[in-house]
Amino acid sequence: MSQTSLYCLPVVWFTFFCSAQGGVIERDWKIAGDGLLTYDDVNQREWLDLSETILDQFPGATLEDRYQSVVAETNAGGMFEGFAAAEANDVFALAESAGIDTSSFDYETNQAATRSLMNLLGPTLVFSPDIMLSFGYLEAFSTLPPNRGMREAVIIFLDTPTPFNSGTARFLIGGDDSMSLSTLGVMLYRNAVPEPASWMLLAIGAAAVASTLRSFY
Predict the structure, then answer these.
(1) How confident is the model at residue 1 (pLDDT cuts 50, 70, 90)?
(2) pTM for the predicted model, two decimal places
(3) Contact 185, 50 (CB under 8 A)
(4) Which of 55, 114, 183, 204 has its CA 20 to 30 A from that of 196?
(5) How confident is the model at residue 215 (pLDDT cuts 50, 70, 90)?
(6) Which of 20, 12, 7 is nearest to 201 (CA)?
(7) Residues near 114 by beta carbon (within 8 Å), at least 6 away in sequence
(8) What is the number of domains present in the chain?
(9) Predicted local confidence at residue 212, as pLDDT
């Protein structure tokens, strides 16, 4: 191995170590390759894709009945056993892990992180490739006007710039019971098995470099 290659090894392993930390990534749920979970490695939670909890797939006479039907499936023996309905602080933590500035709707600030999280959780309403929305109900009701009494939801919205607007990329909590049942999911998460610890990844990298150096000399 050349001396140049030896110098490059620490850089390669440092890059690998850094890429293995932080953010949110896709995981499988029931079968390999289904990609139905989003793993938040900061808070060590797995979030179920919104496609699995769209309300028109569940029984009930009203929107609230259907929401409760989804939540009932988190009980023992249910299809979502082990999951829990999210609250506002849970989804804010997810958004921050994904790199979204939850205090800003600025397109340039948030578009990349917003699009990435939306692609992971799944959009629930798509007007075009440039205008998409993910809408998932939470375990809470709005207590403030104008949506007092409505079920709160996380709203992830992406509207790219056009000649007529400057675009927006946002993550917010709001109350809205007016959407179609086919565009409303429920935000469910479960505690997850963490990815390999950072110190372990670093140790593996260091051992690999040391082994290569010994073989060279």
Answers:
(1) low
(2) 0.80
(3) yes
(4) 114
(5) low
(6) 20
(7) 100, 156, 157, 158, 169, 170, 171
(8) 1
(9) 56
Dihedral of alpha carbons 123, 158, 116, 175, sign: negative
Q: Is residue 134 part of a domain?
A: yes
Residue 33 in domain = no
Average confidence score pLDDT of the chain = 86
**44 part of a folded domain:** no
Q: Tokens 């506002």 label which residue?
A: 88
The amino acid at residue 115 is R
Range of the domain at 172: 49-192
Task: State which amino acid sits at residue 11.
Answer: V
- Give the other-Cβ count within 10 Å of 20's Cβ: 16
- H helix intervals, the chain: 3-19, 63-72, 88-97, 107-121, 198-216
Judge if the upstream peptide bond of residue 196 is cis by omega within 30 degrees of 0.
no
